[in-house]
Automatic annotation (TrEMBL):
InterPro entries per record: Aldolase_TIM, ThiamineP_synth_sf, ThiamineP_synth_TenI, TMP_synthase
Stated family: Belongs to the thiamine-phosphate synthase family.
GO molecular function ontology, one term from the record: thiamine-phosphate diphosphorylase activity
Positions contributing to 4-amino-2-methyl-5-(diphosphooxymethyl)pyrimidine binding: 50-54, 85, 124, 153
Protein name: Thiamine-phosphate synthase
Residues in Thiamine phosphate synthase/TenI domain copies: 19-205
Organism of this sequence: Paenibacillus lycopersici
GO cellular component: a single term: cytoplasm
Names of the cofactor(s): Mg(2+)
Xref: SUPFAM superfamilies: Thiamin phosphate synthase
Binding of 2-[(2R,5Z)-2-carboxy-4-methylthiazol-5(2H)-ylidene]ethyl phosphate, residues: 150-152, 182, 202-203
Pathways involved: Cofactor biosynthesis; thiamine diphosphate biosynthesis; thiamine phosphate from 4-amino-2-methyl-5-diphosphomethylpyrimidine and 4-methyl-5-(2-phosphoethyl)-thiazole: step 1/1
Length: 229
């Protein structure tokens, strides 16, 4: 489980990147309980969770806090990291395992100063320059994308394929990298081959007929080649 003292911090974070579910209330089909969906997804093999409460109809204030706490409890029960997207005060309030920020947010060093030295800090990067800067600022992992077209983020940048992943690895950057954007079990292989440590998804799990089955398939698609043989 995350936080096992026998595992190095970086190894634990890298391992958590493998099947990284991102979700907020607006990603969950009507009539479904987000906590139940998360439980199903973890049962299928999700290794990390990010609470991303964004877009039209997103919860705010007490309702957002209450949902964060419910989902955090599920993550704790199953020993996977609970990461908060963007909202540093929420992350601090609930003592989240980490925070994920974009390029429009404070630099990783400023974020870490607020959330504490032990917390995981993830940063979205779209260019080699942004990636290097985030790592220099102390980011623990980078989110790279969008790899493929996505229907889950209206203001997403143009899809870039696996090029940046390949470029960063070729440049000798060994930091944990997680890919994002339009990823599904059937298109994850080239991402892993390009050097990603895993995939982060919204719709491939939240809109799947079975979150558990979708997570299971993503776990299979992101297995190390050595483990498959
Ligand atoms: N950032 C870049 S693409 C994206 C985010 C949050 C959305 C990913 O969602 P999906 O459904 O996995 O394409
Ligand atoms: Mg942001």
């Amino acid at each position: 489980a995350y936080g096992d003292p026998r595992e190095s911090r970086e190894a634990a974070i890298r391992r958590a990147m493998r099947v990284y579910l991102i979700m907020g209330s607006t990603n969950v089909p009507a009539g479904m309980d987000p906590a139940e969906l998360l439980r199903e997804a973890i049962a299928g093999g999700v290794t990390c969770f990010q609470f991303r409460e964004k877009g039209g109809g997103a919860l705010a204030g007490e309702a957002k806090l209450a949902l964060a706490k419910r989902l955090q409890a599920v993550c704790r029960e199953h020993g996977i990291p609970f990461i908060v997207n963007d909202d540093i005060s929420l992350a601090v309030t609930v003592k989240a395992d980490g925070i994920h920020v974009g390029q429009d947010d404070d630099p990783a060093a400023a974020i870490r100063a607020r959330i504490g030295p032990g917390a995981i800090v993830g940063v979205s990067a779209h260019t080699p320059g942004e990636a290097r800067q985030a790592l220099a600022d102390g980011a623990d992992y980078l989110g790279i994308g969008p790899i493929y077209p996505t229907g889950s983020k209206p203001d997403a940048k143009a899809p870039q394929g696996t090029r940046l992943l390949e470029e960063l690895r070729a440049a000798g950057i060994g930091a944990p990298l997680v890919a994002i954007g339009g990823i599904a079990p059937d298109n994850a292989a080239p991402i892993m081959a390009a050097g990603a440590d895993g995939v982060s998804v919204i719709s491939a799990i939240t809109l799947a007929p079975s979150a558990r089955e979708a997570a299971l398939q993503l776990a299979g698609a992101t297995a190390e080649p050595q483990q498959q043989r």
